Amino acid sequence: MNDGVLLVDKPAGVTSHDVVARIRRGLPKGTKVGHAGTLDPFATGLLLILVGRATRVQRFLMAQPKRYETVARLGYTSTTGDPEGEIEPGDMPGELHLPTGVITQRPPAYSAVKIGGKRAYALARAGETVEIPERQVFVARFDCEWRTEDRAAFVIECSSGTYVRSLIMELGDAYCVELRRTRIGDFDVADASEERLISLDDALAFMPAVELTGEAAAKAAHGVAVPGSAHGTVRLRDEDGLIALAEPRENDLLKPVVGFRA
């Protein structure tokens, strides 16, 4: 293994950090390992593990849209929005309103959002009142697959930063009993395998590629802007593969922002 992305199907009962630590132990000492998007301990599903220089592109992979499957318990509340909180009986929701499009939501108090440099869940568990600012997210799909007695199953496709637990809690008295992430961008949990390392170039294939040769390729490898235009982040490549990720600048230039040759 050198640099790339592993698709891992995280089981319930372990943290995303636990998965990173386990994989790091199996790699040469000093190998950088990270992930692109936390899953709660009770949740299962797709976790992108970043190996080597793939850790440099974490923010780009985290920004990809997500797909979730969740089962909710209706007529009950949970202080955390999941089975790990304090469960209390409540009112059974009637007709469910499933919002889509741009919506405003507040992440749950028991979340990994940082408040004053500390994780919200740590503050909440310490008994402190946690007030997390609202944020706008985009929900492309929110479908109820089935509903019976006090259970209902949903499929949700949403932007990065969306909290499924908040979506379910806002249905009324309800919380998530199961949560599974099935897709991140073009990656599907069905393809998860810890034996196959996806190359950086392939993992970033959702970005347009700009092919360079000669002097332009050499400049890009040293972080120097090269001629070209784009509407967002692009991959700069040459015959040897990926050189850098670049962003557009004035005067039709592409400025490398993440390099892979050094």
Keywords:
262 residues; mainly beta; Pseudouridine synthase; Archaeosine Trna-guanine Transglycosylase, Chain: A, domain 4; ten-stranded mixed β-sheet; 6 helices; 19 strands; tRNA pseudouridine(55) synthase activity; RNA binding; tRNA processing
Topology pattern, helix = H, strand = E: EHEEHEEEEEEHEEHEEEHEHEEEE
User: What assembly state would you assign to the polypeptide chains in this entry?
Assistant: single chain
Strand content: 35-45%
Domains, number: 3
**What is the helix content?**
10-25%
Radius of gyration: 21 Å
Please give the alpha-carbon distance between the first and last residues. 18 Å
What does this structure look like?
- By secondary structure, the chain is mostly beta strands.
- The chain is elongated, with a radius of gyration of 21 Å.
- It has three domains: 4-64 and 186-202, Pseudouridine synthase (2-Layer Sandwich), CATH 3.30.2350.10; 66-184, Pseudouridine synthase; 207-259, Archaeosine Trna-guanine Transglycosylase, Chain: A, domain 4 (Roll), CATH 2.30.130.
- The longest helix is centred in the N-terminal third of the chain and has 10 residues, at 16-25.
- A hairpin with a 2-residue loop joins strand 17 (234-238) and strand 18 (241-249).
- The two termini are 18 Å apart.
- The model has no long low-confidence stretch (mean pLDDT 92).
- Strands 1, 2, 3, 4, 7, 10, 11, 12, 13 and 14 form a ten-stranded mixed β-sheet that branches. The protein has a five-stranded mixed β-sheet with strand order 15-17-18-19-16.
- The protein contains six helices and 19 strands.
